[in-house]
UniProtKB/TrEMBL annotation:
<dbReference type="InterPro" id="IPR001736">
    <property type="entry name" value="PLipase_D/transphosphatidylase"/>
</dbReference>
<feature type="domain" description="PLD phosphodiesterase">
    <location>
        <begin position="143"/>
        <end position="170"/>
    </location>
</feature>
<keyword id="KW-0677">Repeat</keyword>
<dbReference type="GO" id="GO:0005886">
    <property type="term" value="C:plasma membrane"/>
</dbReference>
<feature type="signal peptide">
    <location>
        <begin position="1"/>
        <end position="19"/>
    </location>
</feature>
<dbReference type="Pfam" id="PF13091">
    <property type="entry name" value="PLDc_2"/>
</dbReference>
<dbReference type="GO" id="GO:0032049">
    <property type="term" value="P:cardiolipin biosynthetic process"/>
</dbReference>
<keyword id="KW-0472">Membrane</keyword>
<protein>
    <recommendedName>
        <fullName>Cardiolipin synthase</fullName>
        <ecNumber>2.7.8.-</ecNumber>
    </recommendedName>
</protein>
<keyword id="KW-0812">Transmembrane</keyword>
<keyword id="KW-0808">Transferase</keyword>
<dbReference type="GO" id="GO:0008808">
    <property type="term" value="F:cardiolipin synthase activity"/>
</dbReference>
<keyword id="KW-1003">Cell membrane</keyword>
<keyword id="KW-1133">Transmembrane helix</keyword>
<keyword id="KW-0732">Signal</keyword>
<feature type="domain" description="PLD phosphodiesterase">
    <location>
        <begin position="333"/>
        <end position="360"/>
    </location>
</feature>
<dbReference type="InterPro" id="IPR022924">
    <property type="entry name" value="Cardiolipin_synthase"/>
</dbReference>
Amino acid sequence: MKQLILFIGLWIGCTTLCAAQTSDSLIAKDLRSHGVTFTNNNAVTLLMSGQEKFDDMFKAIRQARKSIHLEYFNFRNDSIAGLLFHLLEQKVKEGVEVRALFDAFGNASNNRPLKAHHLQKIRESGIEIYKFDPITFPWVNHVFARDHRKIVVIDGRTAYTGGMNVADYYIKGTKVVGEWHDMHCRIEGDVVNQLQAIFLRIWNKVSSQNVHGAQYFRGIHDADYIKGLKQDTCPTAHNKCVGIVNREPRTSNEIIRRFYLSAINRAKDSIKIINPYFTLNHKLMKALRGAAKRGVKVEIMLSTRSDIPLTPDCGFYNAHRLMKAGCHVWMYTAGFHHTKIIMVDGRICTVGSANLNARSLSWDYEENAVILDRCTTQQLDDLFDGEKKDCFYLTEKQWRQWRTPWQRLRGRLSHLLAPFL
């Protein structure tokens, strides 16, 4: 009898373990079959606010010895960018190579762009800086692909990625939306080499240079001389499995879409999503409905405020439809949540630049770190659960109280434009 009980216990334990391993291992398998490389010697430190990101990154930049590479959608011409470029100028004087890249449309579309005289001054300080896809007559080139990635690589050893550009509103907020919530992460380990390769490929394309060499690819080595940074406190630090999903037009068009579909379709227990531009497409909508239908607890957090018009209406419309399909929708009211994360089954998560809209999934240059690690995923789960205190839970009654008939109609109409938002 004891042997039978022991056998049953072992069988249940093994079955539970196998089931728990299925989602993350199968998602990784899906991505590997489409060219994504995972490495197992990485540390990932989550930077949960603008203040944390800039404090940590500036501290690392101050200790750089060889090279600093930055790729952003935009550098807003404000106090944070001023501090960054001043710091980079000092590093150039120390002999550090500094290369910066930004998207021309991203620059033109923000309310404090870098203008020609700013760029001239930056270049005179020794910093190499280029625009991706400069806007030229007849001014339609940026209707299509834009460089929306956020990558910083220091000495080929330490990298930063996530949802934040360079702007002081990540710390100060704005009058329109109030507090601006977003997050980033710092990565050390072999996956840094992947981020460096992504940067150098686009840099060489835009600058017509040929920057290459082993000196830029040293992610396997710890940057032990860079001290005082926030630490990865997980027991798995420096042993985390991480891969980079990198979307580039005409070469990896579907990779981020494929990741989200695989993550949602493979989920067995739970899905948690925070994303600012929730326009979705038919396949993602169908996948989320299917997950809820098969018993997965699907939780979605969206902001009631936004920095752009129309797109939020479409997102609210989708949220209402998913609520009716059995998903749990939390509406964040304490500012604007620009965070772009998904957590599945407490085992796999992503931090990166991609929104859940047509532009990110079908047009732009995007990049997300996919992290197969319970501890990091739990940290993001805790972030999600902690933010619920600043949300209201969406019900049909709440929906009708919150959205006027005109606003509900506007959501329906904007949904028709989802392929272009």
